[in-house]
Specification:
It is elongated and about 65 Å long. The protein has a two-stranded antiparallel sheet with strand order 1-2. The protein is mainly α and 205 residues long. Helix content is 68%, strand content 2%.
Length: 205
């Protein structure tokens, strides 16, 4: 992680071995190949993200603060570990392509959890929950695309991009519930608090 932070996505195995204070043959005793090391980095990145994201998504707060804190948990991780995120997106490590798509795996896991959460809330309001799955996957896809754009462009602060996305996501929720005759207070906790069941797979790869 330190070598990647210092040298960027094109970090070499020599850089990693030097940072670890070992020779390359010793490094390969711990990791079978570059792909194996890529998976280990991906698992560590997933742990960092989920350690922040799960508490934020499960916080018993009003809708808008809950959305804002969840988005900030994601974007703060991207901001603090930009090279790791680039490596995982590109699926290339130490100048070698990697087959496993850890970003897609995490994206699917989060989207499924969010879909279940939205479905629980819709059913509690006696609203058809059929749209929960495309809605959950749509939100996650939008956030990921924006994060990739923001990481490369940086035309606004993290706070600004989080606030814009918060407004967009809340507007969709507010408009949808109003269309079904339900008006939610964006700054008041909901009477029924639903939690996200999100657990990273420990045997990925």
């Amino acid at each position: 992680m330190r070598a990647l932070a210092e040298h960027g996505p094109d970090v070499g195995m020599d850089h990693i071995a030097a940072e670890a204070g070992v020779t390359k043959p010793v490094l390969y005793r711990h990791f079978a190949d570059k792909a194996d090391l890529f998976v280990a980095l991906g698992q560590r990145g997933t742990e960092i993200l989920f350690d922040r994201l799960i508490p934020a998504m499960n916080n018993e707060e009003a809708p808008v603060p809950r959305i804002r804190k969840s988005l900030d948990a994601f974007f703060s991780t991207v901001e603090e570990h930009p090279h790791l995120y680039r490596v995982l997106i590109r699926r290339s490590f130490a100048r070698a392509p990697v087959e496993q798509d850890i970003v897609a795996e995490d994206k699917e896991l989060i989207a499924n959890a969010l879909s279940a959460l939205l479905g629980d809330y819709l059913r509690s309001m006696n609203i058809d929950s059929g749209g929960a799955e495309p809605w959950g996957h749509g939100i996650v896809g939008m956030v990921q695309n924006v994060s990739e754009w923001w990481l490369e462009r940086r035309t606004m602060s993290r706070d600004a991009v989080v606030e814009y996305l918060t407004e967009i996501i809340w507007s969709a929720i507010d408009g949808f519930t109003r269309a079904h005759g339900i008006v939610l207070d964006p700054n008041k906790p909901l009477e029924v608090n639903k939690v996200v069941k999100l657990t990273p797979t420990s045997d990925a790869g």
